[in-house]
UniProtKB/TrEMBL annotation:
SMART domains: HTH_CRP (SM00419). This is Crp/Fnr family transcriptional regulator. PROSITE patterns: HTH_CRP_2 (PS51063). Keywords: DNA-binding, Transcription, Transcription regulation. It comes from the Bacteria. Pfam families: cNMP_binding (PF00027), HTH_Crp_2 (PF13545). One of its GO terms (biological process) is regulation of DNA-templated transcription. GO terms for molecular function: DNA binding. It comes from Sphingomonas yabuuchiae. Residues 144-218 form the HTH crp-type domain.
Length: 242
C-alpha cells in the first residue's frame, strides 16, 4: 500500500516495524471515480479509510435538506474516524477528483493497541490534529472577514500539500468550485469570487485554470486570523516502541 505516512513522521521518528504496520494496515487500495460517494451518512461503517491519493470531501446533510461540506481531505488523512463512536456513519465521503483509499476494519485497528501501542498513540494524536483543525475553522467562521478566511484556507492547503510534493514554487492544483469553497468558508459563491479577485488585484495570489499560485505567502499568513500551529515532536508521554 502506498499510504503517505508524513503526518506520523512529523510527530516522531518511526521504527521500520511501525512503518510496516502503517503500510499494511489497510485492505487493498480502491480507486474512487471522480464524484463517487463511497460512504454515506447513516451507513454502518465497520471501519475507517486511509486516504492514499486525490481530493475527497466530507459532508453532512442538514434538516433543511441542504448538504454542507465540512472538510476537504488530502492524502495522508484518516477518513471516517468520527463514526467510531456512532452506530451509523457521521458523514458522507465523496471523491472530488479521482482518488484512492484503503479500508481499515475496526478490529484490525484495535489490534494496534496491543501489537504496536506507540503507533496507536500516534493515531490518537492524528485525531487530535483533526480536532485542532476543526477548532480553527470554528474560531474564524462568522468572526473573520471573507479575505481572512480565504487566506487561512490557502495557507492551510499550502501547508498540507507541501509534505506530499504537491506544491511547486508556492503553487498547487485547486480542484474546488467556488460553491465548494463557499461551503467551506460559510460564504456565497459570489462573495468567494469577489474575494479571490481582490487578492489577485492586490498581487497576493494568481490563478491559471485550477492552479493557484501564492505570490506573497508571508502576506497571506499575516492576513490569516490565526497563527500557524507548531506540532510537538516526540512528546515525552509517548510509549516506547515494541
Amino acid at each position: 500500500m502506498s499510504y503517505p505516512i508524513h503526518r506520523f513522521q512529523a510527530i516522531c521518528r518511526l521504527t521500520p516495524a511501525e512503518e510496516r504496520h502503517l503500510t499494511t494496515l489497510g485492505d487493498a487500495e480502491i480507486v474512487r471515480r471522480r464524484g463517487e460517494t463511497f460512504q454515506r451518512e447513516g451507513d454502518a461503517p465497520g471501519g475507517f479509510h486511509l486516504h492514499v491519493r486525490g481530493w475527497i470531501s466530507s459532508s453532512i446533510l442538514l434538516r433543511s435538506g441542504n448538504r454542507l461540506i465540512q472538510k476537504i481531505h488530502l492524502p495522508g488523512d484518516i477518513l471516517g474516524t468520527p463514526s467510531m463512536v456512532l452506530p451509523q456513519a457521521a458523514d458522507t465521503l465523496t471523491a472530488i477528483t479521482e482518488a484512492v483509499t484503503a479500508f481499515v476494519p475496526y478490529e484490525r485497528f484495535g489490534q494496534l493497541f496491543t501489537q504496536a501501542p506507540r503507533l496507536a498513540a500516534l493515531f490518537t494524536i492524528a485525531v487530535q490534529m483533526e480536532r485542532l483543525a476543526l477548532m480553527d475553522v470554528l474560531a474564524v467562521t462568522g468572526n473573520a472577514s471573507a479575505r481572512e478566511q480565504l487566506a487561512r484556507l490557502l495557507v492551510d492547503l499550502h501547508a498540507r500539500l507541501s509534505p506530499i510534493g504537491m506544491v511547486q514554487d508556492d503553487s498547487f492544483h485547486l480542484p474546488l468550485t467556488q460553491e465548494v469553497l463557499g461551503d467551506l468558508l460559510g460564504l456565497t459563491a459570489v462573495h468567494v469570487n469577489r474575494t479571490i479577485r481582490g487578492m489577485e488585484a492586490d498581487g497576493i495570489i494568481s490563478r491559471e485554470g485550477h492552479r493557484v499560485r501564492l505570490l506573497n505567502l508571508p502576506a497571506l499568513r499575516e492576513i490569516s486570523p490565526l497563527p500557524p500551529r507548531r506540532l510537538q515532536f516526540e512528546p515525552a508521554w509517548l510509549p516506547a516502541p515494541l
